[in-house]
Amino acid sequence: MIRIEKERIDEFIRALMETWSVYAPARDGKNTLFAPVEDPAGIDHGIFNTDKSPKEIFFPHSEVLFEFEGGEIKKVERDARPIAVWGLRGCDARSLRLLDKVFGSAWQKPDNDMFEDPYWKEKYDDSIIFGTACNEPRSTCFCNWFGAGPHDGAGMDVKVVDTGEAFILDPVSEKGKKYIGSLKGWAEATKKDVTKMKAAAKEADKAMGEVFGMDGIQEKMADLFLKPVWNDIGAKCVNCGACAFICSTCHCFDVQDEGKKGKKGKRIRIWDTCMFPIFTMEASGHNPRDMSKDRLRQRFMHKFSYFINNYDEHLCTGCGRCVIVCPVNLDIREVVREVMACEA
Amino acid sequence: MTVKELRETVKSLLTEGKVDLVIGWGKGTMPGTSTPVFIDTAEKADSLIFDSTCRNNLSVYFTKDRRALAKDDKKIGVLVKGCDSRSLVLNITEKQIDREKVTIIGVPCNGVVDMKKVVGKVDGKEILEFTDDSKKVTVKGREFELTFPLDEVISDSCLTCVRRDAVEYDLFIGEAREPGSDENAYAEVEEFEKLDSEERWERMKQEYSACIRCYACRNVCPSCYCNVCFVDQNDPQWIGKSPEITDTMIFHIIRNLHVAGRCVECGACERACPMDIKLLLLNRKVAKEVRDRFGSITGTGLENKPAMADFKEDENQDFIMG
Lengths: 344, 322
Fold this sequence. Notes:
The complex is a heterodimer of chains A (344) and B (322).
Chain A: E1 2-5, H1 9-19, E2 21-28, E3 31-36, H2 55-58, E4 62-69, E5 72-75, E6 83-89, H3 90-103, H4 118-124, E7 128-132, E8 158-162, E9 166-171, H5 174-182, E10 187-188, H6 191-207, H7 217-223, H8 229-234, H9 242-246, E11 253-259, E12 264-271, H10 292-311, H11 321-325, H12 332-341
Helix pairs in contact in A: 7-10
Chain B: H1 3-15, E1 21-27, E2 34-39, E3 48-49, E4 76-80, H2 82-93, E5 102-106, H3 115-121, E6 129-132, E7 136-141, E8 144-149, H4 156-159, E9 171-172, H5 187-194, H6 197-208, H7 216-219, H8 245-258, H9 268-272, H10 280-294, H11 318-321
Parallel strand pairs in B: 1-4, 4-5, 5-9
Antiparallel strand pairs in B: 1-2, 1-3, 6-7, 7-8
Helix pairs in contact in B: 5-10
């Protein structure tokens, strides 16, 4: 564990920028997001969960997969430097790990033949994640429902704790240990720092709301698939994609070609969501998820049933972004409570 | 109006069988929020509220794949602010809603709170408690408590609103106020008009570049009810789907023109936007044009057709004939 006095943090980030392409929380107009760092002084270390989720660093809203001209296919060159993310919250770090199960290597097992997505892997595999422990979780935070906590380091390479006067860098993964071990010129964290870290973690835990038990939710959801409870839950949903696009774990996408057919153009991958009617529209014109409640149910089935069946985890980390942005206050926590309270 | 009056009124409507369902607002899960509720029993009516947090335009629940609501045999009641009632009127004049099947219940509106403005007042700190009366708002958080006039934090659309109470209703809880004058309603549009075309374009680009194409603005809008929205047309595809500025602008401009003479300026789009884009400016610019050219103010009376669906012999044709 090393300690970086706050007045020297820019120096640390600048050193990081020599080898890494660094992303950190920043303000873009009225909103906050993770942006490439050009000047460490521009990082806003005080930003809580960014308005836009950091999934876009590794899985951009619109990503050019390749370009084509005539019959020729051209790979798109990107910044060759590996990505470092600074200031990622625990919920988001775990979100990236979940996405790695879908796109990357995290769910490779000898008995399956999962497709690995090269566009994800070329960015995520070599990346290093500096996560920030949350000293002041908000009322919309519910990471503790998923067995995590505000000072949890899962999904991070290095956990960063703000003790007031300094950032303490606590390596979590092998990659993190290697990086911290390679650094020179930084003092070791003191005993006092460790005491402060422990106190901060304790305070943060206390600030979290009560844990809601979700044992068996995947079977429960499946049993309720055709039940009227979804009419009640879905009644107020207006079926926009705000929740899905702001979500740190929603990852459905569409692939499209832009340009002239057979001539010049590019193939792009764009975020899509089950909330949109066109998502499941079939060529015949039939839509198996025709009504808004069907689409809403799909989103929650994916998060709390299908994903658990496929990858052993919930597809939600409790960041609370959707709770904040939903225009009709359809609170994901209430959906879970209603489902769990419902008799199949 | 008291909450008690509201609940009692809804209860008697339900128990007397005058309606089968009432769409209203209930308490939300975060301070300063409300959430749409669907009340089909007298007991459930106790969850109804009405205050400055009731920002949703509930007329949207009569449109899109819910339009069956007002067409089947159910009798539906709906709580409306002034702007919401204008949306209903628009949908009735456009034959989307059968007037006979809807019981319109007006509630007195003093403007709805824009939580982004409230959060701005406390430097982005988390608000843990929110209370309001019809004149002021009090917020509390860790180590702060602040009270300020309601008018300082109401939505921009409410600041210029002169029809706060329902223009069409079956019953009104409390006393409905007469509309004010529209004369100075478009001050910010006039400021915008003073910019040259390049400056206006820049301003719009700056706003819309934050768009994530979630379509929350479209989906909360009671005037936006095409069976298939042009952005969802994919055979052939009408516009690009990426959040690239050209396609994003096309979406917003076409939507804007499609609701020309149909937008009631309720501001639901702006409040729904997760990226805080000032969507209403362009809508209000168009609304001002419609008012000045055709003398039409959308949704103000069942006898008035929407400007683009109407023709009067003596209407202004300068822009055609030169």
